[in-house]
Specification:
Blueprint lengths: L1 H35 L15 H28 L7 E6 L5 E7 L10 H15 L7 H33 L1
Helix pairs in contact: 1-4, 2-3, 3-4
Pfam families: SprA-related
InterPro entries: SprA-related
Protein name: SprA family protein
């Protein structure tokens, strides 16, 4: 009876992990669609009310967003296992140059069967997703899901330790 309970418990945990993976995939898809539709300030140079201060303000905003976005995505990529290169969204600035206005990196969320290896990978995933100071909703969701999965595995290991101790006493 106890062996059956263990398999049922492991099956339940694996099912919960599969649900979390599906949720992460849905979040990734939403973030990708959202970043496609992001808008930023532009200056209409043909406008008669064109002002050099407006031009400089918008240009500086493009440069700042470009720099922040690149740093943000590179932090994710440097701390985690990725599934490909960083993908950036570009927009033409008022000076005619392309600037990064959004981006994403696909983190490897697959988990090995070995629980200790899975815990190590979840810790790395949590650090990678939560690294930048300004988290997107996808970043926060991935970090939260990784932490929840770590807690599930640790509780399962703790439960197994208690069952093993009980079996030795009998």
């Amino acid at each position: 009876m106890e062996i059956f309970d263990r398999y049922q418990s492991a099956s339940s945990i694996n099912q919960q992990i599969a649900v979390k993976k599906a949720e992460l995939a849905a979040i990734d898809k939403k973030e990708e669609q959202k970043s496609t539709f992001e808008k930023t300030d532009t200056v209409n140079i043909g406008d008669k009310n064109y002002d050099e201060n407006d031009y400089q303000r918008v240009l500086e905003k493009f440069k700042r967003v470009d720099s922040q976005t690149r740093a943000h995505e590179q932090q994710h990529a440097s701390l985690g296992d990725t599934k490909g290169a960083i993908s950036y969204n570009y927009q033409t600035g008022p000076d005619g140059k392309l600037y990064v206005t959004g981006g994403h990196v696909r983190l490897d969320t697959s988990l090995p069967q070995d629980e200790d290896a899975a815990l190590a990978k979840l810790e790395k995933l949590s650090k990678s997703a939560g690294a930048p100071s300004e988290l997107s909703s996808a970043d926060a969701s991935i970090a939260r899901a990784a932490n929840l999965n770590k807690m599930l595995i640790l509780s399962r290991q703790e439960e197994q330790g208690v069952n093993d101790a009980n079996n030795k006493q009998q």
